[in-house]
């Protein structure tokens, strides 16, 4: 039986019953948006019809920059290519101020990116059930140290040195949806210096 708090992800799928569609992606997650745009087209949504109720927000990354393909694929659709995470989140807030009942969000990217977008959506009153989530690219986890509350947005190993307090901490499967992070705890509290082998488990 899996850890109940650990989030589940699935491929994004166009919801033909929604009244507005907000597509967000980071780096390689752009491929997921291209797939949703193709599905939208198969639902009979041409560029003119999609212009109002469909928005594309994209953040290029070191892993992938699919901005040119998205702009070409989403011709006639409002497309924003953000310079950084803050810029994308600001654009998302602007879009969601115009949201109506039935708006759907489609988010694809790293786990840290997905939950940053989910939290912005929550702030504007969007329910989690209205957000589809697909993890793409790196499996690195956003992790919070339970001892000092410092957050590392991209941990790839089972044990890491906390950037806040310097402790060796173990990455648990317990996930806080409110904070959008996994929790980590000190590995050598009872036997200082006895640190297990560090392995890359979230490449």
TrEMBL record:
Give the matching Pfam families. Answer: DmmA-like_C, DmmA-like_N
Put simply, this protein is called Uncharacterized protein
- Which residue intervals define the domain Dimethylamine monooxygenase subunit DmmA-like C-terminal in the entry? 143-185
Keywords from UniProt, A to Z, are: 2Fe-2S, Flavoprotein, Iron, Iron-sulfur, Metal-binding, Oxidoreductase
- Do you know which InterPro entries this protein is assigned to? DmmA-like_C, DmmA-like_N, FNR_nucleotide-bd
Instruction: Tell me which species this is from.
Output: Salinisphaera orenii MK-B5
In the record, what terms sit under GO molecular function? 2 iron, 2 sulfur cluster binding; metal ion binding; oxidoreductase activity
| Domain Dimethylamine monooxygenase subunit DmmA-like N-terminal: residue ranges | 1-131
């Amino acid at each position: 039986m899996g850890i109940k708090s650990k989030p589940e992800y699935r491929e994004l799928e166009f919801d033909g019953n929604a009244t507005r569609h907000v597509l967000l992606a980071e780096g390689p997650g752009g491929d997921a948006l291209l797939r949703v745009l193709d599905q939208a087209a198969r639902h009979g949504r041409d560029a003119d019809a999609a212009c109002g109720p469909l928005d594309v927000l994209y953040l290029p990354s070191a892993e992938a920059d699919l901005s040119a393909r998205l702009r070409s694929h989403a011709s006639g659709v409002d497309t924003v290519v953000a310079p950084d995470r803050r810029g994308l989140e600001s654009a998302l807030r602007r879009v969601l101020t115009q949201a109506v009942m039935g708006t759907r969000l489609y988010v694809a990217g790293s786990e840290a990116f997905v939950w940053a977008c989910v939290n912005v959506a929550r702030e504007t009153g969007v329910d989690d059930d209205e957000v589809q989530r697909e993890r793409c690219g790196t499996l690195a986890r956003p992790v919070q140290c339970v001892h000092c509350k410092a957050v590392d947005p991209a941990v790839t190993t089972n044990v890491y040195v906390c950037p806040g307090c310097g402790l060796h901490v173990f990455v648990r499967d317990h996930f806080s949806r409110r904070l959008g992070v996994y929790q980590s705890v000190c590995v050598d509290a009872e036997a200082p210096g006895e640190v297990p082998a560090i392995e890359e488990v979230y490449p």
